[in-house]
Amino acid sequence: MIKIYNFARGARGLRLFWQCEEMGLPYQVETVALPQPAAYRALNPMGSVPFLEDEGGVAINESVAMMLYLAQRYGPTPLLPGAHDPRFASVLQMTVFGEATIGAALNPLLAARFGAPEAEKRNWSVLALEARVEQALRYVTKQLGDRPYLAGDAFTLADISVSTALGIWRGALDGELPEPLVAYRERLAQRPAYQRALAARGLGYSAGGVTSANAAPCGSINWTMRWPPGTSIGPLSTRAPRAFARARAASRSAVVT
After folding, report:
1. Which DSSP helix (H) or strand (E) runs through 51?
2. Phi/psi-derived region of residue 47, left when phi > 0, alpha when psi is between -120 and 50, beta in every other case
3. Is the pLDDT of residue 240 over 60?
4. Which residues lie below 8 Å from residue 48, measured CB to CB, with a gap of 6+?
5. pLDDT confidence bin for 9, thresholds 50/70/90
6. Please, are residues 63 and 257 in contact by the beta-carbon 8 Å criterion?
7. 53: three-class secondary structure by DSSP
8. What is the secondary structure of 216-228 as a DSSP string?
9. Residue 210's beta-bridge partner residues?
10. What is the pLDDT of residue 127?
11. Element (H, E) at 211
12. C-alpha span between 202 and 253 (Å, rounded)
C-alpha cells in the first residue's frame, strides 16, 4: 500500500492525500514527529516531508515527483491527460510550476519570517523573493483566465500543485492573492476529495472512513484511509487560524519539499 509520511498538518503532504482521494487510491498516513527521529532519517536522509513509499522499494522525497508517479503508476487518470492530449504539456508545466517556481520561493520566506533576526526579516533577498512570488501569481491568474481550472474545464494535477502553494503563501505568510485566485481556491475547497484530504492531514476532524492503528515506527501515528466512494464529511475551514499557521510554518520551514 502507498505510505505517505508528513508532519502533522504539513502543507505539501496535502497534495498527495488529495490526489489519492481524487483517484480512489488506498493509502496510509505516517505523521512524523519533530525533531525527526533517527528511524525516519534512516528512511529519508533528507529529513524532509512529504516522503512516499510504495511496493517494490519505491521511495520518493519530492512532492511533485510523487504526484507524477501516482498518476503514471496507478493511472490512467483524468488528473494527468495522455501524452497526445492537447492539455498534456500545460498540465505538466503548471504542476511543476507550483513547486519549482512558487514553492521554491516559499521555504526561504518562511525561514526568514520565523527564524531570522528582526533586522534580517525584510532584507533585500526577502523583498526579491516576494516580488518573484507576486510575479508568479500574476502568471497563474493569466493562465486561469475565466476558466474553472488551469487546464480548462477539467480538474488536473496542475490545480492540486498550484493551489497548495497558494495556500502556503496566503496562510503561513499572510500573502495577498488576486481576487480570481481567491475564488479559485474557494471553488477547489468544495471538492469532497479535498475535504477528506484535510481530515487525513490531521485537522482534528473524524469520520467513519478513518481507522486509527497502533503507533508506527518513527514515533508517528498511523492512519489508514478507507473512504467509501462519494463520502463527504461536511464543510471544513479552508484556512487555518493565523497563529496556528505561523507555528506550523516555523516548525517545518527548513524541511518541507
Report:
1. strand 51-54
2. left
3. no
4. 61, 255, 256, 257
5. confident
6. yes
7. strand
8. BGGGBEEEEE-PP
9. 225
10. 97
11. strand 210-212
12. 18
